[in-house]
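Replying to the earlier thread about multi-chain prediction with a worked example.

Input:
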Amino acid sequence: MSATPAQANLPSEEKAIIDSIARLGDKSKVAFAKPNRIKISVTRENLVEVAKFVRDELGFDHCTNVTGTDFPKDSQLEVTYHFGSIGGQGFRRIILAVGCRIPSTDPTLHSIIDVYPSVNYHEREAAEMIGCVFQGHPNLGRLLLPEDWNDIPPMLKAYRLPGRLEEG
Amino acid sequence: MSIGPQHPGAGHFRFTVTIDGDTIVDCVPDPGYVHRGAEKQTEYRSYLQSIPLLERSSLTDVTNIIMPFSMAAEELMGIQIPARAQYLRMIMSENQRILSHLYWLGIQGIFLGHSTVFMWPLGDRELFIDLGQMIGGARITYSYAIPGGVRNDMPDNFKDRALKVFDYFEGRLKDYEKIFFNNPLVLKRTQGVGVLPRSDAISLGVVGQTLRASGVKSDTRIDEPYNFYKDMSFEVPTYESSDTWARCMVHLDEMRQSMKIMRQCLDKIQPGPVRVKLSPQQRALAGEAYTRVEASRGALAFHIFSEGSTKPYRVKISVPSFRNLIALPRLLVGSHLADMPAIYWSLDYWPVEADR
Amino acid sequence: MVAEQLDVKKGPAAARDGPGLSVLVGKAKQVIQEVVVDPVTYLANWGRVYSLWPVHLETACCSIEWGAVSGPRFDAERFGTLEAFGSLRQCDLIVVHGTVTRKMAPRLRWIYDQMPEPKWVIAMGACSITGGVYFDSYNVLPGVDQVLPVDVYVPGCPPRPEELIDAILLLQDKIRKSSIR
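Result:
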């Protein structure tokens, strides 16, 4: 996969990362690449393998964030992982985002906690906020929401804030 | 055994520990007592309206928590803020860092039974609150770093007053070293206690003082400089001992560095506009933004999805307290129950920030 | 301010200042009524007023300003309000610092029930009065008076320490005027 015109203007580290990602072939697609920020999209079947690649081949050693978002127009949920690199890779300024879309009707995907222990509480929070299930996660119990929460997950667009009439 | 949320050593956070004799064998954190759902609320507000809301997610760190949000909004709106606004943001951000560290120090004093080190920092804090008030207008919640720049300029007498405060406080820090940081009782209770090895610190994804005390020289201000940090000369304190004492020392050294940065900003700042005029219902372009700054407790990031309207589609905040929470069970298991307050508070876990 | 009004040495000046004199007389009447007519209530309330011990319970971000009030510049201790870090059972004041979430609410009520009578509640900050800036959140109570009976409401976000001191004085006034429970 050769660099697009927009990617040709990127610094060398970003270009090197994109070239490495090309080795994954069909398993990932570059969603966007800007200075300091690269995002790739993967399917849930390839998520764990791509996570291992990101850790071992690309050198991103910890997860900084996991966002769970609801896209009702596409009937999908997206779980976006953000990875950073600290230990001696020379590109601490770059954050790599890995977005994984799953259908709203079957919101399961495999947890990457065995690859990145830092995702523990982040995945747990995403699970309770958008209602997805991370298979293989040791404990997906309530974290921030009260124990007796019995409504739909609050970050779904279908959940309307009480007292607010307008669209979110 | 459940500790919190009403406990002298916990604040608004609870964790359950299992003890065997005097040693902690298991620790289960139970956050969420201050989960106010701010992320959902931002979806119903324009970018400017969300500023007072997000500010209160971390009252000890107001400027640093809204700054990445404003930076992300500016990225999505496609605007560049003036240079003077960036210097002012840096001044307020470093002022905030000192405020946060002094509050931390006050509570750390209580947890170690040192009531002078509760009173002194709270008193010294008032000087820096006055500085913030001169620029921002309020004691704490000034909603200063809005999308487009900053709300207003600083007054002419700010520089003189600030330099006087810095001179006084630099002498004061030496007093703190004498009575607290080099106090033999404190040293005994913090050195070698709660050790987090470097490799664990990196793989667990901890940030801030916890990371730097474990020998990792990482700070967003040098990893991915924003505003004019690349032009500033300052150190990032790092310690190798990875224990509670190291985490305390990093806090102390950072206060010195913050004053150093503020002095340089006050020398380098040039006259000019402080804000790009935006509408309160400014529309952002469709896209995705991930911005981060070095907040008082560590790297703080915002992840925003925008669908091209006046309101963000999804706002996710990655706060340092939440990222450091994973270190709490790791550090407490195997420690003595008596060391628990010192270790817990040295992580600088602020429940209000972690729960958002 | 109170000391000035009760300063009897300022005789001629007090006579010139009309309002000052009438306040002095009013205060004297009040003291006589309290000490002579119902001394037991007066003494009990006097004891309670000057030793209000708040529970150490931080609910949300207003706790920072409460910390500032306990600090040297504002110093709540001179009003007798000393945070007792020991047992809950010797406290008689709950200050609700800010937002009360649905997770915290039952624990707050449980703590209140554990405190011995007499006990008072100060609702500090806009969040504890109406929900404040989090009024439309899914996890926030629109006001703490849904779970606790509040004696003094302190508006602000966060209230300035001067307002908090005013609230403590207001509460002390209220206690002085109340009958023994």
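The first strand of chain A starts at residue 28 and ends at 34.

Feel free to reuse this layout for your own posts.
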